Amino acid sequence: MVRSAVLCLVLALGLASPAAAQRAPQSPPTAAARTAEVPPIVYKERTLPNGLKVYWSQDRSTPNVTVQVWYRVGSKDDPEGRSGFAHLFEHMLFKATRNMPAETIDRLTEDVGGFNNASTYDDFTNYYEVVPAEHLERLLWAESERMGSLVVDEAVFASERDVVKEELRQRVLADPYGRLFALMLPQASYTTHPYKRPGIGSIEELDAATIDDLRAFHQAYYRPDNAALIVVGNFDEAKLNAWIDKYFGPIKTPAGPIKRVTAKEPPRAKAGVFDGYGPNVPLPALAITWLGPQASDPEAPALKVLDAILSAGKSSRLYNSLVYEKRIATAIFSSADLPADPGMFMTGAIMASGHDIAEGEAALLAEVARLQAQPPSATELEEARNELIAGQLRERETIDGRGFALGYALMTEGDAARANTELAALRAVTAADVQRVARKYLPAAKRMTIRYRPESERPAGQTEAKAAPPKVASAKYTGPIVTLAPEGQRVAPPPIGTPVEPVLPKPAERTLANGLRVIVAQSSELPLVSAELIVKTGAWADPQGLAGAASMTAGMLTEGTRTRSAQEIASQVEALGATLGSGAGVESTSVSLNAMPDKLPAAMAIMADVARNPAFAAEELERQRQLALDSLQVAYQEPGSIAGFAAAPVVFGGTPFGHVAEGTPASIAKLTPAQLAKIHGAYFRPDNAILVLTGAITPGQGFALAEQAFGDWKKPAGAAPAQPQITPNPKPRAVAIDLPGTGQAAVTVVKPAIPRSSPAYYPGIVTNSILGTGYSSRLNQEIRIKRGLSYGARSGLSARRTTGAFSASAQTKNESAPEVLDLIRAEMKKLADTTPGADELKARKSVLIGGFGRQLETTSGLAGILGNYALYGIDLTEVSAYTGKVEAVTAAQVQDFARQTLDPAQASVVVVGDGKAFIDPLKTRAPNLEVIPAAELDLDSPSLRKPK
Questions:
Q1: What span, in angstroms and rounded, lies between the C-alpha atoms of 630 and 635?
Q2: Nearest of 406, 179, 415 to residue 295 by alpha carbon
């Protein structure tokens, strides 16, 4: 996937010392300090004779290992007239090598319970996998194959170019603000440096490319002296290094230097304005950018703290000013985007209904000027630093997160050690530093303002200026050409090693005197704890005509209590470096907390206060109502969001599940504080709730904290309200929602499914894994891999208390929607007609087991699993039984589940997109097709249509 330089920090490759060296602070922190500090990543490094840099960090507590290869080639390195090459190669490396047929990397990762992915930034491309540790040697071999013998041919180019086009449509053209962030922001902010080009590239330039262009680009950059290998996890160090020498050592370093970008962005001489327009833009937006330093600049830490002060969390200056106090924006953002070469700093906002860009620009500039005139307070500074440092800690919960931190520091600042020293640099930032960099880098006279409005507001007679793609001569490639070896001549992958048995958490539980069920699982030595309070109520409890009431009740919990204002809650939580959130689903409401152990008592006191004593103040409800309505305006321009909203009334109409859980514009407008307080009073009670604590906490500590925070929560007289039995209407519907001008169509097939208590639950999740979980699932194989019709196709099985739901979906170009619908239905039917083969069944079980194991490795993931078990009455020993139950599912059970539950003839269809491209062919597939113009859509109505 492309990572926008606007929204992510980007990286640059640096040098490593040639000898292996231990990198960690010489003096370990004291026991008292360790709870509040981010543990350093202890690693070693060396450089092979061919120039490949190698970094490794051992962790014996995990059964997994991550293998990552980072190449110093990003979208800034795209040849003139061939933008998008770096991103295209991100896709192509998943195809064939001399000894690996296309998609072999998926067989070696996904099929054994791991995963793989990659991303392209302005300055680099990284490829990363997580697999069970016994597969380490096979992954090292596979990555050496990708580095040394990639097949670059016309067929792969054509197929992946089609996928890139669908990615562009989904991520940029179908998103109301995709053009702003992906295309206009870089174009407006840079004049000379290739950072001005969008990373996803130009379709016209990709279409103009030749196979020689591709091969020349690959030869120029995909070489060992332009790469770093990072391995983190459970391994034997001597074996690891022997395998690295064996597989990567023989790869030759090409002759000649690596071509580097030498362009320099000139300083801005004056302020500028860029006006952009797009279809289906519900609310105006703006961004203000300034040129900034590179990541390795000594002033970068101060700019990161400045960024956090401006926009990190609800206590940030931009949120408080534009969203909370003035109520002129529905969203704010800022970014210290500091890549390898000098980058930029930006602020911005999506305006609230009724407010214009001029108001937003004035308010944004006022907050910048305030920081320039007066340094932040000591409290504000400490809060920003705590948030940044706690964010680093959360990143390091996983082995791939630690690997990413090393690679990020290496690519951004030239030294992997900066992953550890950056924390001290952030702590050292002073209020005067923040004020100084605000003055130095953010002068109003050198800003670029990007204004983004709906196409309907473009001045009459003005058309979009589109520069013609530069015409450049194709490269002349004379190097070696790699082809896939005949099957009998291929080198086989190395053998699988000895499995590492995972250490599963052992949850303990206790019920307090007031009926609150408390579950504690000590699962990590990393100083983090997750706490989740789950209340047994959700959208099913919404009063008739008040869709979204439970969701708004949950959202209002953190917007003020009887003793704390909304701003005080945000400020106190963020000062602790904690995160606190609340939300409601269909059957449950949760309050979620993540904090370091030494801050946990104070954080849990705030958590208990918001859960037990919400104020539901009228003024706060008005703020949240407007934010919700503006959010829906945006969602109603996104085909995928509309399809998701429509699924509930289509499948569950007439039942407590048969409305939009988030609410609709009409229902949200009717909500009152008294209605929310009534929902809270009825369902928020200790005997209707579950508290789960996981991470660096013992059962004794957890039970004591639960008693301290919730022990005096009074249980009301009488029983909690009963939950409803849901019986969905089985009659299928076919609905097409016409959203003119949108860049893609969303195709969704939905139907009722099974409850969580069903004996068919495990056969069901295995069946769904075969059909639509992961890159190698049948839907993704047919729709993306074979035909390039979508950036991704998937399915999901949601098993609830008395019923459940199944969905299969993909987004595609509008004219392909009927074909994608045919493919989804065909794959559902195929599962019922034929049993899966043994190899496929084993692989798709591994996907489930591997994903479950990785979820257990994070505090929030484990809390979610245990909370779900408790919600649905599943014994907590299921955490140990899960693998065995998945493994026990047979091919016959999969076929039976598909026959009983996934009959496409009994499924409903929802397609949302530009209807003129697909409605007529859809009618031949669904004679009962209901066509609803988006302007006439009413999600509160069973018919989905506004009354005439």
A1: 9
A2: 415
Taking the CA atoms of the chain, what radius of gyration do you get in angstroms? 27
Does this model's pTM top 0.70? My answer is yes
Place of tokens 């440092």: 389
Instruction: Report d(CA 856, CA 865) in Å as an integer.
Output: 8
Per DSSP, the three-state class of 567 is helix
289 neighbors 346 (Cβ within 8 angstroms): yes
Distance (Å, whole) CA 154 – CA 165:
17
DSSP assignment of 756-780: TT-TTHHHHHHHHHHHHSSTTSHHH
User: Is residue 27 classed exposed, middle or buried when 0-12, 13-18 and 19+ CB atoms within 10 A define those classes?
Assistant: exposed
pLDDT single digits (tens) 283-299: 999 999 999 999 999 99
**Strand, coil or helix: 874:** coil
Rounded to whole angstroms, the Cα distance separating 854 from 867 reads: 17
Q: Considering only CA atoms, which of 296, 138, 198 is closest in space to residue 2?
A: 198
- Percent of the chain at pLDDT exceeding 90: 86
Q: State the angle between helix axes of 357-373 and 431-441 in degrees (0 to 180), rounded to the nearest 10.
A: 130
* CA-CA-CA-CA torsion sign (348, 353, 356, 362): negative
Chain position carrying tokens 């305030």: 370
Measure the CA–CA gap between 223 and 328, rounded to whole angstroms.
Answer: 51
CA distance 269 to 948: 57
C-alpha neighbours within 13 Å on the C-beta side of residue 633: 19
Print the SS3 string covering 105-122.
HHHHCHHHCCEEEEEECC
Is the pLDDT reported for residue 19 higher than 70? no
Question: Rounded distance, CA 808 to CA 817, Å?
Answer: 13
Q: Which is it for strands 529-535 and 579-584: parallel, antiparallel or unpaired?
A: unpaired
Residue with tokens 């051992």: 58
| Cα separation, 267 vs 287, whole angstroms | 19
Q: Judge contact between 135 and 496, C-beta under 8 A.
A: yes
Question: What's the rounded Cα separation, in Å, for the pair 382 and 36?
Answer: 14
Residue whose structure tokens are 């208590």:
757
Q: Quick one: which of 488, 492, 499, 487 has its CA closest to 141?
A: 492
- Phi and psi dihedrals of 665, rounded to 5? -55, -40
Given a contact cutoff of 8 angstroms between Cβ atoms, the answer to whether 297 and 338 are in contact is yes
Q: How confident is the model at residue 206 (pLDDT cuts 50, 70, 90)?
A: confident
Q: Are 720 and 536 in contact (CB under 8 A)?
A: yes
Q: How many CB atoms lie within 10 A of CB 348?
A: 27
Do residues 233 and 55 lie in contact, with contact meaning Cβ atoms separated by under 8 Å? Answer: no
Q: State the residue for tokens 């669908």.
A: 166
Q: How many residues does the chain have?
A: 948
Secondary structure class of 209 (helix, strand, coil): coil
Angle between the N-to-C axes of helices 300-311 and 378-395, in degrees from 0 to 180, rounded to the nearest 10: 100
Whole-angstrom CA distances from 467 to 173, 193, 453, 470, 743 are: 18, 17, 21, 8, 21
Residue 744, C-beta contacts closer than 8 angstroms, at least 6 positions apart: 166, 169, 170, 173, 174, 639, 811, 812, 813, 814, 913
pLDDT in tens, 241-264: 999 999 999 999 998 899 999 999
Longest pairwise C-alpha distance within the chain: 84
Spatial distance between the Cα atoms of 402 and 393, rounded to a whole number of angstroms: 10
How far apart CA 227 and CA 870 sit, in angstroms, is 47
Please say whether the dihedral angle defined by the alpha carbons of residues 852, 854, 856 and 860, taken in this order, is positive or negative.
negative
What one-character-per-residue DSSP string does 111-160 give? GGT-EEEEEE-SS-EEEEEEEEGGGHHHHHHHHHHHHH-B---HHHHHHH
With 0-12 / 13-18 / 19 or more C-beta atoms within 10 angstroms meaning exposed / middle / buried, residue 51 is middle
Residue 430 CB-density burial (10 A; 0-12 exposed, 13-18 middle, 19+ buried)? middle
Q: How far apart are CA 456 and CA 479, in angstroms?
A: 52
